[in-house]
Structures are given as structure tokens and as C-alpha cells.
Specification:
Elements lengths: L1 E4 L5 H17 L10 H4 L4 E8 L2 E10 L4 E9 L8 H15 L4 E7 L5 H9 L3 E3 L11 E7 L2
Parallel strand pairs: 4-5
Antiparallel strand pairs: 1-2, 2-3, 3-4, 5-7, 6-7
Length: 152
């Protein structure tokens, strides 16, 4: 599998992000959905990545710079045809290593609390993330939970 910095212009990437957003709205009220839209994923403080298996899109994820020491993990999504094949773990490993290399001391994320988010929660815990208080501009929300990991 190959991980690249993506320009978000391909049809496959746009479709995956649309699916991601629609899925979030299916499980959380709109005010509790924090997925970035296409324009925000192209912002200067965000780096968007895709992971490919041969010529097929397998998943995506992004890093959003919060400050010099803190980065946020955004838009982690695996394509349905690649679920449970190690895509998310491979991408998360890459993003954690890159965050360390870039000098960040901490990485945080927001995810949902509904049962459908349990696989994601388990993945983050397996990678050493611990539940935390809201960070950045997030507020307490019964549909959101927050995780943070210290990078060494």
C-alpha cells in the first residue's frame, strides 16, 4: 500500500469524503458532526493523505495543525471494500510517525460515542490514545468523545 499527500481532486477521494460526511450525519446530529468539508481539508493548516492499494483508494486521513506542539487527526476513513484489512492501522502509524518527525508533542482527535464508532475507539486506544477533555474549540457533547496521545 502507498500513502500520499493528496490534492483532493480525484472523483474517488471526493466520493469517499461525501460518504464519510453522510455517515457522520446518519449517526450524530448536524451540530455534533465535526468532519471538515472539502474546502477546509484544503486549508493551509491541514495536510490530507490517501492510502492506495495498487490503483484503488483504500482510505484517507488528515493532520490539522493546532499550534507548534499540537496536531489534530481528522477525516480518518477506510473504504468499505478495504475494511478490516489493516488500512486504518497502516495510515495511523504513518500519521503518528510523521507527526513526531515534524516535532509535534501531542496529537488529539474527536470521534463519536455511538456504537458504530466503537471500532474506531478501539483502534485509537490500541495505538496509545487516551480519553481526554475537549481540546481546541471543541465543547462537551454527548455525541463526541476526545482522545489524546503524547508523542515521544
Amino acid at each position: 500500500m502507498k500513502i500520499i499527500i493528496d490534492d483532493l481532486e480525484s472523483y474517488e477521494v471526493k466520493q469517499l469524503l461525501q460518504e464519510h460526511h453522510e455517515d457522520m450525519l446518519q449517526h450524530s446530529p448536524p451540530e455534533s458532526v465535526h468532519a471538515l468539508d472539502l474546502s477546509l481539508l484544503k486549508a493551509e493548516d491541514v495536510t490530507f493523505f490517501t492510502i492506495w492499494s495498487n490503483d484503488k483508494l483504500a482510505g484517507c486521513g488528515a493532520l490539522k495543525k493546532l499550534n507548534e506542539n499540537h496536531v489534530e487527526l481528522k477525516s480518518m476513513r477506510t473504504c468499505r471494500s478495504f475494511l478490516r484489512k489493516g488500512v486504518a492501522a497502516k495510515l495511523l502509524t504513518h500519521l503518528l510517525e510523521l507527526s513526531k518527525t515534524q516535532g509535534y508533542k501531542k496529537i488529539s482527535l474527536e470521534t463519536g460515542t455511538m456504537d458504530v464508532f466503537i471500532p474506531a475507539q478501539k483502534l485509537y486506544k490500541r495505538f496509545g490514545f487516551v480519553e481526554s477533555l475537549p481540546f481546541s474549540s471543541y465543547q462537551e457533547d454527548p455525541f463526541s468523545m476526545f482522545f489524546t496521545k503524547t508523542l515521544n
